[in-house]
Design a protein that fits this description.
This protein is of the alpha+beta class. It has helices at about 20, 50-55, 80-85, 90-100, 145-150, 165-175, 200-210, 255-260, 310-325, 335-340, 355-365, 365-375, 385-394; strands at about 30, 40, 70-75, 105-110, 115-120, 155-160, 185-190, 215-220, 225, 230, 235-240, 245-250, 285, 305-310, 325-330. Helices cover about 30% and strands about 20% of the residues. Helix 4 (about 90-100) packs across helix 9 and helix 8 (about 255-260) crosses helix 12.
Length: about 400
């Protein structure tokens, strides 16, 4: 199929940028669409119809692993690791088990404006890559960086991202320069529901800033809060420049309400080919939700990760983690592993009948009012009113 005759609809593009990097004519660019998601746009006048953009595209060619997988429960023994992780610390324990001083890991991190981009870190300082970001990360600039590291050094490289990003990287490295030796590459794909745009996150942060009349200097999704009996990690923590901290859970925070109801993802997320049990990374990591239903003796008050070892490379890493005894880890049945997340059992069906109304409302109103318009059953506590009054009275 020719890119000219079979041009992908905007709804199929995942915004990874692999096509931008592989195009020999440089006729593909990434730009925002009307909903502020990043999509590929083609200059057909310059296109030579080589179809490399179609071949590298992770939506057209997911390249999933169909060999036998193994499934694992993992929870780090380190309280510090658990506190700094979204779930059971699987990402940290994997890195510590397989990377050395000169090796490199690429993952999503905030910049000073909370724009999320993939950056390179070493084993001594990867804390910025921990925690879910709940927004799409830009990776367009790192394809060639990883290619150069793999071709010019003997260092190991870990790349972690959403499944479409991992598949895009795998496809690009197979195609770029006649193929790259990826024996030193380790890929980790995340169990993903979908990704909002940076514009959406920015609108939310502007709303918070307006409500609390303070600048935001810290943002952390999946902040863990414990009531002594069970731990809840579906919270957002916001730090203001005066030292005050706001913590809200998923039933009272407008951004999390919109996220978990699936109304602000990019178009391609609603038809995602990666929402299934077969995966594209050497390892898959995510939350092990509801494990106590099958294993009642597991401690509810700690972070819990589900880990898939999808390749021989991934299985060797799991074996090394078990030998180090740095965490509680044991194999689980496939049924248990797949029950942990809806995204492992097929495309999730969200009610997006009011999605256009929501996007219009976010554009014309503040973020909180937009969420309230589409989800009127949720109640937003008047924390901002209490906060502002307290500071006025000081």
């Amino acid at each position: 199929m020719s890119i000219k005759s079979g041009f992908k609809e905007k709804s199929k593009c995942c915004g990874c940028g692999a096509c931008v990097n592989i195009c020999p004519q440089r006729c593909v660019t990434l730009r925002e669409d009307s909903n502020h998601h990043i999509n590929a746009y083609y200059d057909f006048a310059a296109c030579i119809d080589c179809n490399r953009c179609l071949e590298v595209c992770p939506i057209e060619n997911p390249n999933l692993h169909y060999n036998s997988q193994s499934y694992w429960y993992l929870s780090s023994h380190s309280k510090e690791t658990l506190d700094k992780s979204s779930s059971g610390g699987a990402f940290t324990e994997i890195l510590l088990s397989c990377l050395e001083a000169n090796d490199c890991v690429y993952g999503a991190a905030y910049d000073s404006n909370f724009h999320v981009k993939h950056v390179a870190c070493n084993i001594d300082d990867f804390s910025s890559l921990r925690k879910s970001k709940f927004v799409q990360s830009e990776i367009v600039d790192i394809f060639n960086q990883i290619k150069d590291l793999l071709t010019k050094t003997n260092n190991k490289v870990v790349f972690t991202g959403t499944p479409c990003q991992v598949s895009a990287m795998n496809n690009y490295l197979k195609m770029g320069g006649g193929g790259v030796n990826t024996s030193n590459l380790i890929t980790i794909d995340l169990i993903c529901h979908g990704v909002p745009s940076y514009w959406m996150l920015r609108r939310y942060l502007d709303y918070v800033k307006k409500c609390y009349r303070r600048n935001i200097i810290g943002l952390k999704f999946r902040h863990k809060v414990s009531d002594g009996t069970i731990e809840n990690s579906r919270n957002v923590e916001i730090v203001f420049d005066d030292g005050e901290v706001l913590i809200e859970n998923s039933n009272e925070n407008p951004y999390l309400i919109a996220y978990y109801n699936g109304i602000m993802y990019r178009d391609s997320c609603y038809e995602c080919p990666f929402k299934q049990s077969k995966r594209c990374g050497d390892i898959t990591i995510g939350d092990f939700w509801h494990i106590e239903q099958w294993l009642p003796n597991v401690n509810k008050n700690i972070g819990k990760s589900v880990v898939f070892a999808n390749t021989e490379k991934g299985k060797k890493i799991i074996k090394k983690i078990k030998m180090w005894k740095c965490c509680e880890i044991f194999s689980v049945e496939e049924t248990y592993a797949l029950s942990t997340n809806r995204s492992l059992r097929g495309v999730e069906h969200f009610d997006i009948s009011k999605r256009d109304i929501f996007f219009d409302a976010v554009s014309s109103r503040d973020f909180g009012r937009a969420v309230k318009k589409v989800f009127p059953k949720y109640f937003f506590p008047l924390k901002q009113v209490i906060y502002v009054v307290r500071h006025i009275l000081k």
